[in-house]
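Whiteboard transcription, Tuesday session. T.W. wrote the structure tokens on the left side:
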């Protein structure tokens, strides 16, 4: 048995805090957004963690997500509904990327995407807080992860997705026990339905950043990077940005680790990558704005980052700016080319959102924003197997004459 999941460990959440105003909220209570309508961040008693959980102790544990228990919000081990949240590997892609390019391959996680990190945490907290029914808008992967974890512990789920969500995602969500509806609109249109039902008390709203714990799950990507790089961080991180949970979470993880004395003050340049068919964060970044306006007529093959409006926009923009990074958009043709290159040259089948990070890395290299000697981590956030692939096969008649040498 995994000791990370069988041993009760001390927990250190002190309170929650509005990410915009700093207003405090009580821990161990049901919360959605803050009164200012912004995401709540979980705060910990870091000096106490520093005293009882030295880095070497955490490092000696089995390397799954629950190794970080002291830095996570779940109080009781019995509330954790695990499907095996492994530490994901860094896969070099020397031919399609370059000598110092590593892909953090999140497709290895349960339900085939990194949404599992956020949802395993949010569902554990929902279970702890007695939530019985959850609704969520999704572009696919989040709904699948929610369905899997919630079903596993008997929480009812209703999931709304845009009607052109990849077929496999829609079926996967239903197969894992959620009721799934295709909506003739985008993810924020789905979110409006979820919000309406939540306001009527019909269910709890699990939209991105509208409950406080998905960030804590996604934060583990930042913790893992530090551990994998020997308690240093890479020079640059390329993150496919929709709602931005992972980027915000990693940035938070870096600050917490510095406060714990686990890492120094150096930070990677954070690159928030979007598709040019839906790039609200890029537009706001370039205009020097603190908030991003809704992107109209959003379209891209990279469904996971087709998010016209992000409630945590200012947190994404702040992290990117503070890090000396940049928000960048890449077009669908470059995305598809990158996916093809990584598969054909390096044998790694990425999802389109992952392809976007590779396309953006190449562009950043051209623009001199990163150097080939610098270590760059690209996030591939779902397995490429969940997305439509071109059929390049030919047929063979086994009863006819087969010219084997010509195959
Ligand atoms: C959800 C998703 C993203 C975007 O993640 P955020 O943290 O919401 O910005 C990127 N890629 C894939 C495959 C996704 O499913």
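and on the right, the sequence the group agreed on:
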């Amino acid at each position: 048995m995994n000791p990370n999941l069988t041993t009760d460990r001390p927990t250190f959440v002190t309170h929650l805090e509005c990410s915009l105003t700093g207003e405090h909220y009580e821990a161990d209570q049901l919360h959605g957004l803050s009164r200012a309508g912004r995401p709540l961040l979980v705060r910990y008693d870091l000096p106490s963690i520093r005293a009882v959980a030295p880095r070497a102790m955490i490092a000696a544990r089995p390397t799954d997500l629950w190794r970080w228990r002291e830095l996570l919000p779940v109080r009781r081990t019995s509330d954790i509904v695990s499907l095996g949240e492994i530490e994901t590997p860094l896969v070099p892609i020397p031919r399609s990327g370059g000598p110092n390019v590593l892909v953090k391959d999140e497709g290895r996680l349960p339900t085939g995407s990194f949404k599992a990190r956020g949802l395993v945490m949010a569902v554990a907290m929902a279970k702890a807080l007695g939530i019985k029914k959850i609704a969520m808008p999704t572009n696919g992967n989040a709904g699948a992860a929610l369905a899997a974890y919630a079903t596993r512990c008997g929480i009812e789920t209703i999931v709304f997705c845009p009607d052109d969500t990849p077929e496999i995602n829609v079926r996967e969500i239903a197969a894992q026990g959620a009721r799934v509806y295709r909506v003739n609109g985008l993810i924020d249109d789905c979110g409006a339905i979820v919000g309406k039902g939540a306001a009527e008390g019909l269910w709890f709203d699990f939209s991105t950043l509208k409950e406080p714990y998905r960030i804590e799950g996604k934060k583990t990507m930042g913790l893992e990077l530090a551990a994998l790089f020997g308690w240093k961080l890479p020079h640059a991180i390329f993150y496919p940005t929709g709602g931005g949970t992972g980027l915000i979470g990693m940035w938070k993880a870096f600050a917490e680790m510095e406060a714990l004395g686990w890492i120094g003050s150096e930070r990677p340049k954070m690159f928030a990558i979007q598709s040019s068919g839906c790039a609200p964060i890029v537009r706001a970044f370039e205009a020097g704005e603190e908030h991003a306006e809704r992107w109209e007529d959003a379209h891209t093959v990279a469904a996971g980052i087709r998010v016209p409006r992000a409630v945590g926009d200012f947190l994404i923009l702040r992290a990117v700016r503070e890090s000396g990074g940049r928000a960048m958009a890449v077009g669908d043709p470059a995305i598809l080319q990158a996916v093809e290159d990584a598969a054909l040259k390096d044998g790694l089948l990425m999802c389109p959102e992952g392809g976007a990070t590779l396309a953006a890395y190449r562009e950043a290299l051209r623009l001199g924003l990163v150097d080939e000697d610098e270590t760059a981590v690209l996030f591939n956030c779902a397995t490429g197997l969940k997305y439509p692939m071109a059929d390049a096969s030919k047929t063979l008649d086994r009863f006819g004459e087969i010219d084997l040498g010509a195959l």
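Someone added at the bottom: The two ends are 49 Å apart (CA to CA).
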